[in-house]
Amino acid sequence: MNVDNNANFAFNVMNIIYAFDEDTAEVKRFPSSGRIMRIIKHKFVPEKVGDQVIFKIPQDPGSIYVTDSFVKKYHEHRLTGLIFKEVWSNED
Asked: Which residue ranges does the record assign to the Immunity MXAN-0049 protein domain (predicted)?
């Protein structure tokens, strides 16, 4: 199959994991419901992230999270079009 270099693609991440550590993360909550409005400082439970490569979390379903292994493969294969922002390191 030939892929046009000017083609646009979409990818729907369906892998939702419960790895966000609300107890140690810094979040802003809605006053009325207590639900998370915004994540200020991310914290994950490393054991729950495990060997995941790309995932979402229920507390922030609009964001896609990837691990270093994803970023490494992305750069190895000289892919383009994504911008990565480090939000957490298990070395924190």
From this structure: 9-87
